[in-house]
Amino acid sequence: MANWSIFFLLLCSTIFHLHQSEASHDARVYRNLADLQPKTPSQTYRTSFHFQPPKNWMNDPNGPMVYKGLYHLFYQYNPLGPDWGNIVWAHSTSTDLVNWTPHKPGIFPSQKKGDINGCWSGSATMLPGGVPAILYTGINPQNQQVQNLAKPANLSDPYLIDWVKDTNNPLMYPTPANRLNSSSFRDPTTAWKGPDGHWRVLIGNKVNRRGRAILYRSKDFVHWIQAHHPLHSAEGTGMWECPDFYPVSSSIRPGKNTGLDTSVIGVGVKHILKVSLDDTKHDVYTVGKYDISKDVFTPDKGAVEGDAGLRYDYGKFYASKTFYDSLKGRRILWGWINESLSKEDYISQGWSGVQGIPREIWLDKSGKQLIQWPIPEIEKLRGKKVGLAGKLLKAGSTQQVAGVTASQADVDVSFSVQLSELKKADYLDQTRRPDAQLLCSQKDASIKGGLGPFGLKVLASKDMKEYTAVFFRIFKVKNNKYKVLMCSDQSRSSINPRPDKTPYGVFLDVDPLHEQLSLRTLIDQSIVESFGAKGKACITSRVYPTKAIGDAARLYVFNNGIANVAISNMSAWSMERALLDKKS
Ligand code: DQQ
């Protein structure tokens, strides 16, 4: 019997016993949840072109990489049910990052000292000679978090089906000497090599409320020594999960070779440190300088750390990870999009969690933030197109965009505003730093404004009892300047009162006086993934309409302000379904 099958049988019996003992703690709750688990997963909110397994729980993307021309995605997965637990690294491969072939789990608990209680998140590194190595967090018999190494069993297999764990595992672990808290020591990054030939890797950690990216160094990738200081830390930010650290070029040409391999340093190179804040479940990053001689990262002047800083996404997007795509010279970002359902509800649907569309990322020309854009491969799923250009969207108007499959679409629209109309913008007092998300709640899509709200109403029902509005509002601020707010407002996304419908928002760094305002939204049954201002800010929402499902869903453009705006250009495509169970 294969190792994985043995593991699976053991897992089932452990779970049975675990559940029995859990049941003695809280028999009522456990029985209720278990009863809810369906035999076949509900299909209603399953996505068509966002990655997800056929059933059960999925969370963080793990160890994405490209090997022998194939893309690999591993992810945190519960083979036994739709809630978090029994975590293994599930595995799929793809030739295009759109259609995927599932394989058996690549990494699962099997090593007594290293990971018998779980295989948590980690990353892949390409070693010299193109040998992939995975560092991941294992949960040991004492339930401590420790770091392990696995390598492919057969390097000539492009699918990398079998992985062998290093016999020295665990390679990094809490000791009385390092005084690392064994429940806050996890999620190794992709490692990078310095000019001294030594590998470096970061592990997420905290000490009290100080989030830390602990640095380890190694000559041989097996023996790791903790550096005297973390690469970086920040007070008051709590536990840093899933750190990611990589170089970006300050002189890129969008569209071509936008990414740098992880070990690149030098002139014209800046670094990004991303951390996943356990307290708020937000992925935040800073742009800064990495001093390799001291192994210290310093965020640029003015950079804000922690939850008030820059986020990859201002909606749902967590525990993300990038990898360098050597086939196309770009850096690609994967992120986990959780449900907005109660635990009871996602258990009864039989699955939980989706991955965002892989995004290409590069440094904005301002040098102050990243730009994110859906990988172009996703465009091959585009079907029938509906277009509009140079159309006035009058104050107070709503117009249907007919002719596209509104439950499964890619919409790219840009708006422009004439100077005379800009004058109608409401004033925004900035003396106390306004909170974008709060503003989006207070001024949702139904609240008339001066300039805006205008944008899209997606997954809308015919009677408009249900819709998700992705829109802009332009405000006047001091010194004849303007401020643009982008909202993803799901407060009316479903007549079902149970899902979380908190609207999301962010201010965009654009000047509506001189620039068009663009919005690209990928609509996929229960996901609305939006890219504002050509990828300067992203907001992802999960929504659960009860009427606006399948063919009944509609798409609208709307303007609920007193000023007119123009649609300079709009293209909306019906999207085909991606294959997630392709045979290899
Ligand atoms: N998920 C993993 C951890 C990580 C967390 C466990 C982030 O390794 O810190 O499933 O979502």
From TrEMBL:
SMART domains the record matches: Glyco_32 (SM00640)
One GO MF term attached to the UniProt entry: hydrolase activity, hydrolyzing O-glycosyl compounds
Keywords recorded for this protein, A-Z: Glycosidase, Hydrolase, Signal
GO terms for biological process, alphabetical: carbohydrate metabolic process
Signal peptide: 1-23
Family per similarity comment: Belongs to the glycosyl hydrolase 32 family.
Taxonomic source organism: Oldenlandia corymbosa var. corymbosa
InterPro entries per the UniProt record, alphabetical: ConA-like_dom_sf, Fructan_Metab_Enzymes, Glyco_hydro_32, Glyco_hydro_32_AS, Glyco_hydro_32_C, Glyco_hydro_32_N, Glyco_hydro_beta-prop_sf
Cross-referenced PANTHER family: BETA-FRUCTOFURANOSIDASE, INSOLUBLE ISOENZYME CWINV1-RELATED (PTHR31953)
Protein name: OLC1v1015053C1
Chain ranges of the Glycosyl hydrolase family 32 N-terminal domain: 50-374
Stretches assigned to the Glycosyl hydrolase family 32 C-terminal domain: 377-574
A Pfam family annotated for this UniProt entry: Glyco_hydro_32C
Complex and partners: May be present in two forms, a 70 kDa monomer and a heterodimer of the 30 kDa and 38 kDa subunits. The ratio of the levels of the two forms within cells appears to be regulated developmentally.
